[in-house]
Amino acid sequence: MALRLLCSIFCRMLGWLALLGRSSAVKNVEILALRHEVAVLRRQVGRPRMSWVDRAVLSTLARQLPSMLRRHRLVTPGTLLAWHRRLVRWKWRQPPAELGRPPLPEEIVALIRRLARENPTWGYVRIQGELRRLGHRVAAATIRRVLRRLGLPPAPQRVGQQSWRTFLQTHAHTLLACDFMHVDTVFLRRLYVFFVMEIKTRRVHVLGVTAHPTGEWVAQLARNLLMDLGDRAGDFRFLIRDRDAKFTTVFDAVLAGNGTRVIPTPPQSPRSNAFAERWIRTVRAECTDRLLIAGERHLSAVLDEYAKHYNAGRAHRSLDLRAPDDALNVIPMTVAAVGRRRVLGGLLNEYHAIPTRPPVDPTERPSSAA
């Protein structure tokens, strides 16, 4: 700003030096012309806007004019006093004080949102208590205000807004899904495979392979499934199946004796049994579409080997890239040596860590036997 003011003063000085060579008559005529131009501009412009440099120059020049001529200038004494008051206010102004309590940190807001979404039955006071146990002291009214801003209703309404995804995740440990898949052999013979999947762990049980599936055969496979599950059979309360005619009343009765309710899917709606349908696509893309199947025994052996790989050696997106048989509380450590196990003759590969032996000290002598 100071540089701009100095440039303006220098230009004005040059203009004044140029006026020294003019006569008084020329100056008077120029003053009359300028006064007329100012009068014309005043009729057109209501209130001109001036910068602080214009105000400084006009204020300095106005002090050199007689008192009678000052009344007809743009800069009047009242304007000068107003400018001075504005400068005083600008000098002594203070930043506005922040009223009220400081805002909540973003991590606390994110934690409140997480607690409210993961626990639909928790009210404001319940969330407040959980935050206090985690070391955060937040008022219940603040929690209510945060949830309102996020568009989350109170606890009773959040329970009513439960989605199908949340409902299925809540009951996944009690759900089973079963279905048939077909495989065409190298001799153009169609074989049928019956399997059951545990929805929570994604563990697959390949129960049987045949070319002529019947209702009695499927019912016997249901009995075999309950025997394989053992003590865990009572944990499953529902089984999802389609409306295939091979699922007879005997099949439903076998599972009902275990306390498992059979839920048929709506007609022509494979998405209702999406977990089983997705496994069929996976096993075809990774196994059966890449092999030539000779017969029932060949297909049974291939699927048994693939089921072991699927349950113990394959990462799943829905399980945080773990296998169904992996322990959830075990964190694998970084290893230097990695081994490979071929599955189905090298069609698939499994990798595992090889424990490294401690280095042997060459100076240490082996102990002699007694």
From TrEMBL:
Domain Integrase catalytic: 152-332
Pfam families: HTH_21, rve_3
Single GO molecular function: nucleic acid binding
Domain of life: Bacteria
SUPFAM superfamilies noted in UniProt: Homeodomain-like, Ribonuclease H-like
GO biological process terms held by the UniProt record: DNA integration
Stored Gene3D superfamilies: Ribonuclease H-like superfamily/Ribonuclease H
Job description of the protein: Involved in the transposition of the insertion sequence.
Protein name per its UniProtKB record: Integrase catalytic domain-containing protein
Gene source species: Kitasatospora kifunensis (Streptomyces kifunensis)
